[in-house]
């Protein structure tokens, strides 16, 4: 009988996570893009990421269908930024509804994933998206679809992540983190414009409510296929990221920040 914890052969060492993201997955996606405070955006960006000309943030609610796996919920909350002339988004939070969807992306790409509940509910023209963690629905869009839009051509989006691990002694990081460029080649089957309200509720663990929704710029509902690829652009000094490393960890100490 084979011992499944034993060493694996080269063929068995193929990365299943990379294979899954490379073939793409169809998702029902609700994206609420909004304008926010420029000082707030600047305050959450680690160096060397730079604030954009226009302070934008977005909340993304999705259900993802990968062949062979149960459909799962996936969310993200990101702010617009740039690096060396490349425009993209820096993600503060990525709640995922299954352990499998958390581990691979978090360890492979440096995505700030955490276990949570994400839903996209459609009933006729009515649409609702929610992100919930630790008993708090901290992001919710409620509205309706208003019109079908022309299907856009395929496009490539860029997200910036940092791969970093806390040091074993609890002091700082165990090395200089990597700045990861993650690109997603997206194809759209259909897309509709939405109108409604994006509500951000206060949460001790996911404080997205600190990023004010000054005005909704664009809200869409659609079906997308995304092929994801990541590469390390460079390493950055650990001191640049240490002040921001709390963004990806819950403070579960008995007294917390109090």
Written account of the structure:
- The protein has 258 residues and is mainly β.
- The chain has a domain at 16-149 and 187-225: Acetoacetate decarboxylase-like, CATH 2.40.400.10.
- Helix content is 11%, strand content 50%.
- It contains four helices and eleven strands, in the order H-E-H-E-E-E-H-E-E-E-E-E-E-E-H.
- Strands 1-2-3-4-9-10-11 form a seven-stranded mixed barrel.
- The radius of gyration is 19 Å and the shape is globular.
- The model has no long low-confidence stretch (mean pLDDT 91).
Q: Which keywords apply here?
A:
single chain; 258 residues; mainly beta; Acetoacetate decarboxylase-like; seven-stranded mixed barrel; 4 helices; 11 strands; 11% helix; globular
């Amino acid at each position: 009988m084979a011992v499944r914890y034993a060493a694996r052969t080269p063929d068995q060492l193929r990365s299943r996570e990379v294979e899954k993201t490379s073939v793409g997955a169809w998702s029902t996606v609700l994206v609420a893009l909004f304008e926010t405070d420029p000082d707030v955006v600047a305050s959450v960006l680690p160096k060397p990421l730079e604030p954009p000309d226009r302070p934008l943030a977005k909340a993304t609610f999705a259900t993802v269908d990968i062949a062979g796996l149960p459909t799962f919920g996936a969310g993200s909350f990101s702010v617009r930024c740039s690096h060396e002339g490349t425009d993209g988004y820096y993600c503060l939070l990525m709640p995922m509804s299954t352990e499998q969807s958390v581990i691979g992306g978090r360890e492979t790409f440096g995505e700030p994933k955490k276990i949570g509940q994400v839903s996209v509910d459609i009933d006729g023209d009515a649409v609702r998206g929610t992100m919930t963690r630790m008993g708090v629905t901290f992001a919710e869009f409620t509205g309706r679809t208003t019109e079908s839009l022309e299907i856009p051509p395929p496009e490539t989006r860029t997200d910036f992540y940092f791969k970093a691990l806390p040091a074993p002694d609890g002091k700082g990081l165990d090395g200089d983190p990597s700045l990861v460029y993650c690109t997603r080649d997206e194809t759209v089957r259909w897309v509709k414009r939405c109108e409604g309200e994006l509500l951000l509720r206060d949460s001790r663990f996911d404080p997205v409510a600190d990023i004010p929704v000054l005005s909704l710029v664009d809200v869409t509902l659609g079906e997308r296929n995304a092929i994801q690829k990541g590469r390390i652009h460079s390493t950055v000094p650990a001191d640049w990221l240490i002040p921001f490393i709390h963004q990806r960890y819950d403070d579960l100490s008995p007294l917390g920040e109090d």
